[in-house]
Protein backbone atom coordinates (compact mmCIF):
# COMPACT_ATOMS: atom_id res chain seq x y z
CA UNK A 1 0.00 0.00 0.00
CA UNK A 2 2.83 2.40 0.90
CA UNK A 3 4.61 1.58 -2.35
CA UNK A 4 1.44 2.37 -4.27
CA UNK A 5 1.00 5.71 -2.48
CA UNK A 6 4.63 6.61 -3.21
CA UNK A 7 4.20 5.73 -6.89
CA UNK A 8 1.08 7.91 -7.05
CA UNK A 9 2.94 10.82 -5.43
CA UNK A 10 5.76 10.55 -7.98
CA UNK A 11 3.31 10.30 -10.87
CA UNK A 12 1.30 13.25 -9.61
CA UNK A 13 4.26 15.57 -10.18
CA UNK A 14 4.44 14.46 -13.81
CA UNK A 15 0.79 14.33 -14.91
CA UNK A 16 -1.06 17.14 -16.71
CA UNK A 17 -4.81 17.58 -17.14
CA UNK A 18 -4.80 16.03 -20.63
CA UNK A 19 -3.60 12.78 -19.08
CA UNK A 20 -7.28 11.96 -18.50
CA UNK A 21 -7.42 10.88 -22.16
CA UNK A 22 -4.37 8.58 -22.09
CA UNK A 23 -4.20 4.84 -21.43
CA UNK A 24 -6.32 3.47 -18.62
CA UNK A 25 -7.11 7.04 -17.55
CA UNK A 26 -8.95 7.45 -20.86
CA UNK A 27 -11.10 4.44 -20.02
CA UNK A 28 -11.75 5.81 -16.53
CA UNK A 29 -12.76 9.15 -18.00
CA UNK A 30 -15.17 7.43 -20.39
CA UNK A 31 -16.68 5.44 -17.51
CA UNK A 32 -17.03 8.64 -15.46
CA UNK A 33 -19.11 10.47 -18.08
CA UNK A 34 -20.97 7.51 -19.61
CA UNK A 35 -23.84 7.20 -17.07
CA UNK A 36 -24.53 10.94 -17.34
CA UNK A 37 -24.43 10.70 -21.13
CA UNK A 38 -26.76 7.69 -21.02
CA UNK A 39 -29.20 9.61 -18.83
CA UNK A 40 -29.39 12.36 -21.45
CA UNK A 41 -29.84 9.76 -24.20
CA UNK A 42 -32.84 8.13 -22.53
CA UNK A 43 -34.95 11.23 -22.02
CA UNK A 44 -33.73 13.45 -19.18
CA UNK A 45 -34.54 16.72 -20.96
CA UNK A 46 -37.88 15.46 -22.22
CA UNK A 47 -39.23 14.89 -18.71
CA UNK A 48 -37.25 17.47 -16.74
CA UNK A 49 -37.83 20.45 -19.05
CA UNK A 50 -40.75 19.62 -21.33
CA UNK A 51 -42.64 17.02 -19.29
CA UNK A 52 -45.97 18.82 -18.93
CA UNK A 53 -46.05 19.90 -22.57
CA UNK A 54 -45.07 16.41 -23.71
CA UNK A 55 -47.92 14.86 -21.73
CA UNK A 56 -50.32 17.44 -23.14
CA UNK A 57 -49.23 16.74 -26.71
CA UNK A 58 -49.57 13.01 -26.03
CA UNK A 59 -53.26 13.50 -25.27
CA UNK A 60 -53.20 13.19 -21.47
CA UNK A 61 -56.22 15.05 -20.04
CA UNK A 62 -54.38 16.23 -16.90
CA UNK A 63 -50.76 16.72 -18.00
CA UNK A 64 -49.68 18.77 -14.98
CA UNK A 65 -50.98 16.11 -12.59
CA UNK A 66 -49.02 13.42 -14.42
CA UNK A 67 -45.95 15.68 -14.37
CA UNK A 68 -46.30 15.97 -10.58
CA UNK A 69 -46.59 12.18 -10.34
CA UNK A 70 -43.40 11.63 -12.33
CA UNK A 71 -41.56 14.28 -10.30
CA UNK A 72 -42.63 12.54 -7.09
CA UNK A 73 -41.38 9.25 -8.51
CA UNK A 74 -38.06 10.87 -9.36
CA UNK A 75 -37.61 12.15 -5.79
CA UNK A 76 -38.61 8.80 -4.28
CA UNK A 77 -36.25 6.95 -6.64
CA UNK A 78 -33.28 9.08 -5.58
CA UNK A 79 -34.06 8.52 -1.88
CA UNK A 80 -34.37 4.75 -2.33
CA UNK A 81 -31.15 4.62 -4.33
CA UNK A 82 -29.24 6.17 -1.43
CA UNK A 83 -29.68 2.79 0.25
CA UNK A 84 -29.54 0.55 -2.81
CA UNK A 85 -26.33 1.97 -4.27
CA UNK A 86 -24.25 0.53 -1.40
CA UNK A 87 -26.26 -2.64 -0.85
CA UNK A 88 -27.22 -3.68 -4.36
CA UNK A 89 -24.17 -2.27 -6.15
CA UNK A 90 -23.41 0.42 -8.71
CA UNK A 91 -23.14 -1.69 -11.88
CA UNK A 92 -26.43 -3.65 -11.66
CA UNK A 93 -28.35 -0.53 -10.66
CA UNK A 94 -26.97 1.58 -13.49
CA UNK A 95 -27.15 -1.07 -16.22
CA UNK A 96 -30.63 -2.32 -15.41
CA UNK A 97 -31.89 1.25 -14.95
CA UNK A 98 -30.86 2.26 -18.47
CA UNK A 99 -32.21 -1.01 -19.86
CA UNK A 100 -35.60 -0.45 -18.21
CA UNK A 101 -35.78 3.10 -19.55
CA UNK A 102 -34.85 1.94 -23.04
CA UNK A 103 -37.58 -0.74 -23.00
CA UNK A 104 -40.05 1.90 -21.81
CA UNK A 105 -38.97 4.10 -24.74
CA UNK A 106 -39.80 1.30 -27.17
CA UNK A 107 -43.19 0.59 -25.57
CA UNK A 108 -44.17 4.27 -25.65
CA UNK A 109 -42.97 4.45 -29.26
CA UNK A 110 -45.27 1.57 -30.18
CA UNK A 111 -48.15 3.39 -28.47
CA UNK A 112 -47.39 6.37 -30.70
CA UNK A 113 -48.49 4.41 -33.79
CA UNK A 114 -51.64 2.87 -32.26
CA UNK A 115 -55.17 4.36 -32.23
CA UNK A 116 -55.98 6.79 -29.42
CA UNK A 117 -58.11 5.46 -26.55
CA UNK A 118 -58.26 5.57 -22.76
CA UNK A 119 -56.36 2.31 -22.30
CA UNK A 120 -53.49 3.69 -24.40
CA UNK A 121 -53.25 6.71 -22.09
CA UNK A 122 -53.10 4.51 -18.98
CA UNK A 123 -50.37 2.33 -20.48
CA UNK A 124 -48.43 5.43 -21.55
CA UNK A 125 -48.51 6.93 -18.05
CA UNK A 126 -47.48 3.59 -16.51
CA UNK A 127 -44.44 3.22 -18.75
CA UNK A 128 -43.59 6.90 -18.35
CA UNK A 129 -43.27 6.11 -14.63
CA UNK A 130 -40.96 3.15 -15.37
CA UNK A 131 -39.02 5.40 -17.74
CA UNK A 132 -38.47 7.97 -14.98
CA UNK A 133 -37.46 5.36 -12.40
CA UNK A 134 -34.72 4.06 -14.68
CA UNK A 135 -33.61 7.53 -15.71
CA UNK A 136 -33.21 8.82 -12.15
CA UNK A 137 -31.49 5.64 -10.97
CA UNK A 138 -28.94 6.11 -13.73
CA UNK A 139 -28.46 9.72 -12.62
CA UNK A 140 -27.81 8.66 -9.03
CA UNK A 141 -25.07 6.26 -10.10
CA UNK A 142 -23.65 8.87 -12.50
CA UNK A 143 -22.99 11.18 -9.56
CA UNK A 144 -21.36 8.34 -7.64
CA UNK A 145 -19.01 7.44 -10.48
CA UNK A 146 -17.87 11.05 -10.86
CA UNK A 147 -16.26 10.84 -7.43
CA UNK A 148 -15.15 7.20 -7.39
CA UNK A 149 -13.95 5.93 -10.71
CA UNK A 150 -11.18 8.36 -11.67
CA UNK A 151 -7.62 8.10 -10.40
CA UNK A 152 -6.92 10.15 -7.29
CA UNK A 153 -4.43 12.49 -8.92
CA UNK A 154 -6.67 13.24 -11.93
CA UNK A 155 -9.99 13.29 -10.11
CA UNK A 156 -10.68 17.06 -10.39
CA UNK A 157 -10.04 17.03 -14.15
CA UNK A 158 -11.95 13.82 -14.80
CA UNK A 159 -14.99 14.92 -12.79
CA UNK A 160 -15.03 18.34 -14.45
CA UNK A 161 -14.79 16.81 -17.93
CA UNK A 162 -17.53 14.28 -17.17
CA UNK A 163 -19.93 16.96 -15.94
CA UNK A 164 -18.98 19.23 -18.85
CA UNK A 165 -19.77 16.55 -21.45
CA UNK A 166 -23.17 15.96 -19.84
CA UNK A 167 -23.95 19.69 -19.79
CA UNK A 168 -22.98 20.19 -23.45
CA UNK A 169 -25.17 17.26 -24.48
CA UNK A 170 -27.95 18.69 -22.32
CA UNK A 171 -27.84 22.02 -24.18
CA UNK A 172 -28.01 20.18 -27.53
CA UNK A 173 -30.98 18.16 -26.29
CA UNK A 174 -32.73 21.33 -25.11
CA UNK A 175 -32.76 22.60 -28.69
CA UNK A 176 -33.72 19.34 -30.40
CA UNK A 177 -36.43 18.31 -27.93
CA UNK A 178 -38.03 21.74 -28.18
CA UNK A 179 -38.58 21.16 -31.89
CA UNK A 180 -39.64 17.53 -31.46
CA UNK A 181 -42.42 18.20 -28.94
CA UNK A 182 -43.62 21.53 -30.37
CA UNK A 183 -46.96 21.15 -32.16
CA UNK A 184 -46.01 24.01 -34.52
CA UNK A 185 -42.66 22.46 -35.44
CA UNK A 186 -41.96 18.73 -35.84
CA UNK A 187 -44.89 17.62 -33.64
CA UNK A 188 -43.62 14.09 -33.03
CA UNK A 189 -45.83 13.36 -30.02
CA UNK A 190 -45.20 9.88 -28.62
CA UNK A 191 -43.01 9.09 -31.63
CA UNK A 192 -40.25 11.05 -29.91
CA UNK A 193 -39.70 7.82 -27.99
CA UNK A 194 -38.21 6.25 -31.12
CA UNK A 195 -35.61 9.00 -31.19
CA UNK A 196 -34.61 8.17 -27.62
CA UNK A 197 -34.73 4.45 -28.33
CA UNK A 198 -32.35 5.01 -31.23
CA UNK A 199 -29.73 7.08 -29.42
CA UNK A 200 -30.35 5.23 -26.17
CA UNK A 201 -29.48 1.80 -27.57
CA UNK A 202 -25.70 2.41 -27.93
CA UNK A 203 -25.76 4.15 -24.55
CA UNK A 204 -27.41 1.07 -23.01
CA UNK A 205 -24.93 -1.34 -24.65
CA UNK A 206 -22.08 0.88 -23.47
CA UNK A 207 -23.36 0.67 -19.89
CA UNK A 208 -23.13 -3.14 -19.88
CA UNK A 209 -19.67 -3.12 -21.49
CA UNK A 210 -18.06 -0.18 -19.68
CA UNK A 211 -19.49 0.20 -16.20
CA UNK A 212 -17.54 -1.64 -13.44
CA UNK A 213 -18.58 -2.47 -9.89
CA UNK A 214 -16.78 -0.08 -7.54
CA UNK A 215 -18.77 -0.88 -4.39
CA UNK A 216 -16.46 -1.45 -1.41
CA UNK A 217 -13.29 -0.76 -3.39
CA UNK A 218 -10.60 1.61 -2.16
CA UNK A 219 -8.78 3.99 -4.51
CA UNK A 220 -5.73 1.72 -4.46
CA UNK A 221 -7.84 -1.32 -5.34
CA UNK A 222 -9.49 0.48 -8.27
CA UNK A 223 -6.06 1.62 -9.49
CA UNK A 224 -4.84 -1.97 -9.38
CA UNK A 225 -7.86 -3.35 -11.22
CA UNK A 226 -7.51 -0.82 -14.02
CA UNK A 227 -3.75 -1.33 -14.24
CA UNK A 228 -4.33 -5.09 -14.55
CA UNK A 229 -6.86 -4.33 -17.32
CA UNK A 230 -9.60 -6.36 -15.65
CA UNK A 231 -12.79 -6.30 -17.71
CA UNK A 232 -15.34 -3.89 -16.16
CA UNK A 233 -17.97 -6.62 -15.78
CA UNK A 234 -15.48 -8.75 -13.80
CA UNK A 235 -14.48 -6.15 -11.21
CA UNK A 236 -16.68 -7.64 -8.52
CA UNK A 237 -15.09 -11.11 -8.86
CA UNK A 238 -11.46 -9.95 -9.13
CA UNK A 239 -9.25 -10.32 -6.07
CA UNK A 240 -6.87 -7.46 -5.29
CA UNK A 241 -3.56 -7.36 -3.43
CA UNK A 242 -5.31 -5.62 -0.53
CA UNK A 243 -7.82 -8.46 -0.22
CA UNK A 244 -5.06 -11.06 -0.33
CA UNK A 245 -3.17 -9.19 2.38
CA UNK A 246 -6.24 -9.05 4.61
CA UNK A 247 -6.85 -12.78 4.12
CA UNK A 248 -3.24 -13.62 4.98
CA UNK A 249 -3.53 -11.82 8.32
CA UNK A 250 -6.81 -13.43 9.36
From TrEMBL:
Q: Which InterPro entries match?
A: MFS_sugar_transport-like (IPR005828), MFS_Sugar_Transporters (IPR050360), MFS_trans_sf (IPR036259)
Q: Which UniProt keywords apply?
A: Membrane, Transmembrane, Transmembrane helix
GO terms of molecular function: carbohydrate:proton symporter activity
Q: Give coiled-coil spans as residue ranges.
A: none
Q: What are the TM regions of this chain, as residue ranges?
A: 64-84, 93-115, 121-145, 157-181, 193-211
**Main subcellular localization, coarse class?**
membrane
Localized where?
Membrane
* Assigned GO CC terms: membrane
Record protein name field: Major facilitator superfamily (MFS) profile domain-containing protein
Source organism of this protein record? Bionectria ochroleuca
